[in-house]
Specification:
The chain has nine helices and four strands, in the order H-H-E-H-H-E-H-H-H-E-H-E-H. By secondary structure, it is an alpha+beta fold. It is globular and about 50 Å long.
């Protein structure tokens, strides 16, 4: 059986996707980021929750503050990428549910009245959305360098508030010289899938 998606698109989105480590200095425009979001916002989440929040780090001052919270090996990449995005989970996402899930607005209070339940749901669904966002970056012809090597408490204090949990930092742009490390192995189908 073949996939419905064109083979070139399969390659662009998946087979040729790598974490980028270097970028050109070509800027990433607001219009490009909006086009990425306007595509990936349609991807599914539980109860149509949309807890992902994105902070675009564009100013030199904000970049310097962010770099100080990155792991040492991630600092040069974050300092030089054309655009850096902080992806976070909004733990108060449930306030939007009456508009996002209008046929059952009571879901907001039935499932998400407790902070712990919201945090768990926000982390899962925002991470799912972060994956969609990375694929969207690829669909825009850009490269993504997602990283979890940073001080979450420091990034939260500098750029977010107590209701937002940072998930990852993503460098975005056109891939630069020697942007890719060699492809690492992947598990085969029969190593992952079990039929019962």
């Amino acid at each position: 059986m073949t996939l419905a998606l064109d083979p070139a698109a399969q390659d662009l989105l998946f087979r040729e996707a790598h974490t980028a480590n270097t970028f050109t200095d070509e800027p990433v425009s607001e219009e490009q980021v909006q086009a990425i979001y306007d595509l990936v916002k349609y991807a599914p989440t539980a109860f149509n929750q949309s807890p992902l929040r994105i902070v675009l780090v564009r100013s030199a001052e904000a970049r310097e503050r962010l770099v100080s919270h990155m792991a040492e090996g991630n600092q040069p990449k974050t300092a030089t990428a054309p655009l850096v995005a902080i992806l976070a989970a909004d733990n108060e996402f449930h306030e939007e549910l009456p508009a996002l899930f209008p046929h059952a607005p009571q879901i907001k209070d039935i499932f998400f009245s407790e902070r712990g339940a919201r945090e768990q749901a926000a982390a899962f669904n925002a991470s799912l959305q972060a994956g969609y966002f990375i694929v969207g970056v690829r669909a825009a012809g850009l490269a993504a360098g997602p990283m979890t090597g940073f001080d979450p408490a420091g990034v939260q204090k500098e750029f977010l508030d107590d209701n937002h949990t940072p998930l990852m930092v993503i460098n975005i742009g056109k891939p630069g010289e020697d942007a890719w490390k060699p492809r690492s192995p992947r598990l085969d189908y029969n190593q992952v899938v079990t039929t019962v």
